[in-house]
Design goal:
Chain B: Its main location: membrane. The complex is a heterodimer of chains A (449) and B (375). Chain A has 449 residues and is of the alpha/beta class. Chain A is built from 19 helices and eleven strands. Chain B is 53% helix and 13% strand. A five-stranded antiparallel beta sheet of chain B has the order 2-3-8-7-6, with no helix packed on it. A four-stranded antiparallel beta sheet of chain B has the order 1-9-4-5, with no helix packed on it. By secondary structure, chain B is α+β, with helices and mostly antiparallel strands.
């Protein structure tokens, strides 16, 4: 009888536990591939506290980030309001200036976080977090460096925590089109160029490139140039270029722009001809891959682009990607260009601090990994949790990288990285000489100082 | 001179034709947007809205049914289905490789090798046969089809069914109605004082208000929000009412004052002689006479506040309880935008209430537009 009673109580407890966990996408403790130990270890009592997070994610991305936040809420009892905004860059400036900031801001690029840190609107995350990143992130030191800025008092500190990374060095293609034509995925830049010529010789068009993006027209070309920089010159030169120790007019930079031009300014290489590139919207550009007959065979774009593929496209089957290869002859290893979002503390509170601590747990990464669109440099996560093989393949590109560099235009001052560099690339696409374009951008940069 | 009265000058026709041409020209973009709102994303990126009403010939790709839908007929394995799931259109040619998507005419049989063959009929039905059982992914079928025009209401279903739209509609109303009424109330009093009450510095004050018309509101966003935070209003409805009122007041005062100053002096003076106070004159004489100007300003202010996103994102929070309609529609566009069909549809959904307001008050608008221009 007693045993029965106990069993009843246990069953009741299970039911209650189940009810509690129903808005958690993966029930804690159930699937062994997740690191539930880190979730249990993180548990603390912060009930009654409330924090707001302002970020750039909307729509489906918002649902994804909220699915991660739910675990923080369940583990601490604190309430988190996530708000997304497509004009995040403007709104965070207004809110911090006016004195009503959220507790945590999610910056799409580190450049803006740097500006706010310099004005004293961000809280230093402290040396402990820096040490943690150094020890637990792949290429940890570079992630620390990317988020270390001078504060208002002039002392440098760690003002950002990278969470969610995008890989940019990807070439998208339709495997069945490659099969039909008998093409192989190229392993080196030499092969890629040979393939490009072969496609032209077969009467096809190899590339789809689109630079259009409203007020940001030109940015896809800056990614190309950054990738080409990493493939034609040393990572040290890349770093110097980003901080303008190496001028835009330097031969190495001009050469990288011309490497990009070798693809985009050749009428036979790009769908719609070289003149069309600047006017095609980057969101419409990949659709040429899926046309009948194919308008192009390859499209170089970051890991987010599948959201603009035609409805029902299955990644890994209908469309796939390969690593934008490096030159075999140049011995620069396997460089990877990426970007990422930075969490910054805009208002200090125990709950906000706890949230940053939460982002250090493997489980905070694994929950999003198990869904979609999330890559992480966290070394402590189980890569088996990646929701689909495609993400795992991207994750492998990230882990196999001999050099990882952050999107340079995101690190340059706004007037260059989100201004002169973009418009310069549009001018270049329009037929202006690389040397003149570089000189113009450098002139803009000089005017800033 | 006898053609002045009686017959119409041919110039009238020219004017009428010119007006019609201009009206059509003005309406074309809106019409295009309306057509786009009934098309899906792939259609919008494939062809212009002006092609929406004609049959189009396009090369398309379909995939044969999965291997588990295969049936055994004698010694053949068959996968059958149609490449035109909606049953409309006509297939003219088909192919099995992206290299040559128009290799065969409809009705012919294509040999895919290894005992596999495919035939596609003009009505879109296909038959894929093999001497061995199918495994793995089925092949793609390339076909050229002429399809009749297709319009969809899916976009509207998606926008109207968006999570939180009803709540956002109420939020927008909560913002818009007080933000329209408050400035009218204040401006009517101020306009009367500036038009009919004698006090020193009146002309300067009017000049100052006219000057405020040219101050862009973006300048005031940060200082005003700072002020709200210091006063403890923070991001609440009262804050956005004050902000919208403030931004709307210069125009309201200017418009109403110019209208009121044009009212006949005799009426007001005789009321004074009869012993009416300023307040009575304002309430009983000026307000009823100024109705056209009040109505036209109300329309301006209502439309402006209804369509506003900037002021709302700054002075209200971004959470579900405070998100306005423009905010929800913006969220539908996703993190990277580019969903044109949603943009077009949202425009027509959000235009509905302003249209009602406009038609309800438009007879006053024309009169009100002339406010203050003639005595």
């Amino acid at each position: 009888m007693k045993a029965k009673l106990f069993a009843g109580a246990a069953a009741l407890a299970l039911v209650a536990g189940g009810a509690f966990a129903q808005d958690l996408r993966f029930a804690p403790g159930e699937d062994a591939k997740f690191n539930w130990a880190s979730y249990e270890a993180f548990k603390q009592d912060l009930s009654g506290q409330e924090i707001t997070i302002l970020g750039p994610w909307l729509g489906p991305d918002k649902d994804l980030v909220e699915s991660v936040i739910a675990y923080f809420e369940a583990a601490t009892g604190a309430k988190v309001n996530y708000n997304g905004s497509d004009s995040f860059e403007q709104q965070i400036v207004i809110d911090t200036e006016a004195g009503s900031p959220p507790d945590i801001a999610v910056f799409p690029q580190p450049g803006l976080a740097r500006d706010l840190a310099a004005k004293g609107h961000l809280v230093d995350l402290g040396a402990d977090t820096a040490t943690w990143i150094r020890d637990n992130y792949a290429a940890g030191q570079s992630w620390v460096d990317l988020a270390t800025f001078p504060g208002k008092d002039g002392n440098s500190g760690l003002f950002g925590f990278f969470y969610k990374v995008d890989v940019k060095s990807l070439v998208w293609y339709v495997p069945e089109n490659f099969e039909d034509a008998g093409y192989e995925v190229p392993a080196t830049m030499e092969d890629l160029k040979a393939l490009t010529d072969k496609i032209v010789a077969d009467g096809g068009t190899p590339w789809c490139i689109g630079l259009g993006s409203g007020g940001a027209t030109g940015w896809p070309a800056t990614d190309w140039v950054e990738d080409m920089m990493l493939r034609t010159t040393t990572p040290e030169n890349y770093d110097k270029w980003v901080s303008n120790e190496l001028k835009f007019t330097d031969a190495a930079v001009v050469a990288a722009i011309e490497e990009y031009g070798a693809f985009s300014r050749n009428d036979a290489y790009v769908a719609g001809g070289a003149a069309g590139v600047a006017s095609v919207d980057f969101r419409d550009s990949p659709k040429g891959l899926f046309a009948s007959p194919p308008q192009c065979y390859m499209h170089r774009q970051a890991s987010f682009i599948p959201s603009f593929f035609p409805e029902g496209t299955v990644i890994g089957e209908d469309a796939d990607f390969f690593y934008f290869p490096a030159y075999a002859e140049k011995d620069l290893g396997q460089p990877v260009l990426g970007a990422g979002t930075v969490f910054g503390l805009t208002k200090d509170s125990p709950a906000a601090r706890a949230f940053i601590e939460f982002l250090k747990t493997p489980i905070a990464h694994e929950i999003w990994m198990a869904q979609k669109g999330f890559l992480t440099p966290h070394k402590g996560v189980n890569t088996e949790t990646y929701g689909d093989p495609t993400l795992k393949k991207m994750g492998d590109i990230l882990l196999n990288a001999t050099t990882f560099r952050f999107d340079g235009s995101d690190l340059m001052p706004g007037a260059i990285g989100a201004g002169a560099f973009w418009t310069g690339m549009v001018d270049y696409q329009g037929g202006k000489a690389a040397v003149d374009v570089a000189a113009d951008i450098q002139k803009n940069w000089d005017a800033l100082q | 001179m006898d053609n002045i009265a009686g017959t119409k000058s041919s110039l009238v026709w020219t004017v009428n034709l010119a007006v019609i041409a201009l009206v059509v020209l003005w309406t074309i973009p809106t019409f295009g947007l309306l057509v786009s709102s009934f098309r899906d994303r792939d259609q919008i990126s494939a062809s212009g809205w002006w092609n929406a009403a004609v049959s189009s010939e396009a090369n398309e790709i379909a995939r044969a049914g999965d291997a588990d839908t295969q049936l055994q007929e004698g010694d053949l394995w068959v996968i059958a289905g149609t490449v035109l799931p909606e049953g409309k259109g006509e297939v003219s040619r088909f192919g099995t490789s992206s290299r040559d998507p128009t290799a065969y005419a409809a009705g012919e049989t294509a040999d895919l090798g290894e005992g596999v063959s495919l035939t596609v009929a003009t009505d879109g039905s296909y038959r894929l046969t093999s001497t061995t059982a199918f495994e793995g992914r089925s092949p793609r079928i390339f076909f050229t089809a002429t399809t009749p025009p297709r319009l969809t209401t899916e976009n509207y279903a998606r926008v109207l069914g968006a999570e939180g739209l009803g709540r956002a509609f109420l939020n927008t109303m909560t913002v818009t109605i007080p933000a329209t009424v408050i400035p009218i109330l204040i401006a009517a009093f101020a306009a009367y004082a500036l038009a009919w009450m004698e006090f020193p510095g009146r002309a300067l004050l009017i000049a100052g208000i006219v000057g405020l018309l040219v101050v862009p509101l973006q300048l005031a966003l940060i200082p005003l929000l700072k002020l709200h935070n210091q006063l403890g209003i923070g991001k609440e409805y009262i804050g956005i009412w004050l902000a919208h009122s403030g931004f709307g007041l210069p125009l309201a005062v200017y418009l109403l004052r110019n209208y009121m100053v044009g009212l006949p002096r005799e009426i007001i003076e005789s009321a004074r002689v009869d012993g009416a106070t300023d307040f009575q004159i304002f309430l009983k004489i000026i307000l009823p006479l100024s109705f056209p100007a009040l109505a036209s300003f109300a329309i301006f202010q209502f439309l402006w506040v209804w369509n506003d996103l900037l002021v709302a994102t700054v002075f209200l929070g971004n959470n579900q309880d405070q998100l306005v309609m423009t905010g929800v529609l913006r969220e539908l566009l996703g993190s990277r935008g580019g969903e044109w069909e949603i943009l077009a549809t949202s425009a027509f959904v959000s235009i509905f209430v302003p249209l009602v307001v406009f038609f309800a008050m438009q007879k006053y608008l024309v009169r009100g537009l002339l406010a203050g221009s003639v005595k």
